[in-house]
Amino acid sequence: MPPASRFLNHSPRWHQTLFRGRPRTEREKIIASWIEESGSLTERLIQRVGQEFRVVVLQQYLGSGYAEERRALGLARNQRAIIREVALQGNDQPLVLARSIIPEATLIDADRRLGHLGNQPLGHILFKDPRLTRESLEMCCLKPQSIRARQPGMDPQHPEPLWGRRSLYQLGAGHPLLVAEFFLPSLLDQDGSS
User: What sign does the dihedral 105-110-113-119 (CA atoms) show?
Assistant: First the structure.
């Protein structure tokens, strides 16, 4: 059986907000701009890196996910979902780690292509579907010990928190999917230097 996650030691604690009040530091403003992105994250990354954008599949399997993910999706323990983890890269450097949970019922009833993406970005299908709605947006800040060691795009000598967001989407009524995206320091550092 595959590990629960290739890059998380456990399910993150998700929150409605991360910053008390408005982001104050430049780093917080950069983080907030990625977390609050309302359009396709894939498209934003492609605009940044152009033809050098690619998706690297870390793992994909049929399973049940973390208990907290099942609760967010309204799934019983015995209901299965496609669990897909990828690295979104630019210039062969990982910029974002993403984890998607797509229930079997969503695949069967809403869009079977979601189970056969390969190296195609999930966003290319989702954001072209007129049925897509975002039900909720949550955020997290993971301490370095919450992250599996030696993740690409992270400096093991100077570990820093990993910021993330999680969206619950619906592809029409009753067809949910959960997408979590974690912004690597390599991406945030680029924004800070531009």
Answer: negative
Rounded Cα distance between 51 and 17, Å, is: 34
Average pLDDT over residues 25-35: 89
Give the homologous superfamily in CATH for domain 26-193. Answer: Chorismate lyase-like (3.40.1410.10)
Instruction: Tell me how far CA of residue 173 lies from CA of 19, 29, 93, 134, 180, in angstroms.
Output: 32, 34, 37, 12, 21
B/e letters for 84-122, b = 16+ CB within 10 Å, e = fewer, are bbbbbbbeeebbbbbbbbbbebbbeebbeebbebeeebb
Angle between the 26-35 and 185-193 helix axes, to the nearest 10 degrees? Answer: 120
In order of 12, 124, 134, 158, 181, the CA distances from 166 in angstroms are 10, 18, 10, 25, 6
Condensed to tens digits (0 to 9), the pLDDT of residues 127-177 reads 989 999 999 999 999 887 777 755 555 665 656 788 999 999 999 888 999
Whether the Cβ atoms of residue 85 and residue 7 lie closer than 8 Å to each other: yes
d(CA 182, CA 31): 10
Instruction: Say if strands 53-63 and 176-183 run parallel, antiparallel, or are unpaired.
Output: unpaired
Whole-structure pTM over 0.70, yes or no? yes
CB 72 within 8 A of CB 94: no
